[in-house]
Amino acid sequence: MAKWTAFPYDSAEYTYDTATLKKKWARLHAGDAEPLPKDDKVLAAWALFHAGEFQKACEAGLKAGGAGVTVANKAQAIYANYLEKSEKTKLALFLEVSERAEAQAEEDAKNANAFYLMAYALGRYSQGISVAKALAQGLGTKVKGALETAIKLSPKHADAHIALGAFHAEVIDKVGKLLGRTQGADSATGLKLYQQALKLNPTSAIAMVEYANGLVMLEGDKRMKDAEKLYADAAACTPMDAMERLDVEMAKAELED
User: What is the pTM of this model?
Assistant: First the structure.
């Protein structure tokens, strides 16, 4: 494995010992509803993830196997999304995550995050190769199906609601409402999913950022003021771990644009 780019911020605040991690688990996993691991090795891999040690978290998760695959996949997907500079490497990392998560879902059909991370990685991969091209390859149906399964398995999975909202918004934005309908994309459904995500996880910067993006994609410039307010709210969030810090920094960058 080539050396990954390091997390660029101070991670001292996000470094948790086992006892603190267990205490803060519900808040740290309000987005992905991942259950607290029973295996100490998996818990240790999550501690690395929260501290922004994405490569170490991925390696430790894979080594632990079982539930460790989830933390490995999340670490790799978040790293690829925010920190990998090479577009080619980023796409390869996303594909690898989607394949691993798909195998995990086949093995453990009740694991909501296996379906969610497969969809997240495939969705980001689709954005990288162009949404229209991805839809032509049938990836849209796969992403939508996996996210719907994740929500069915874990109704409080805020991140799956965000990603499914983004699916509806992206498809309509790229191919229009009429063609979007053939992919099962619908504006009202998309907006409802974003709102539900924020209800489930009200302090989530990424939910605010994605909802802002979705509003502009689905309703255009007339919602720009609402979108800017959401970006500002997201930028003002207090991050609890490295991933949330990357979300908050992204919101700040959006505001500067």
Answer: 0.94
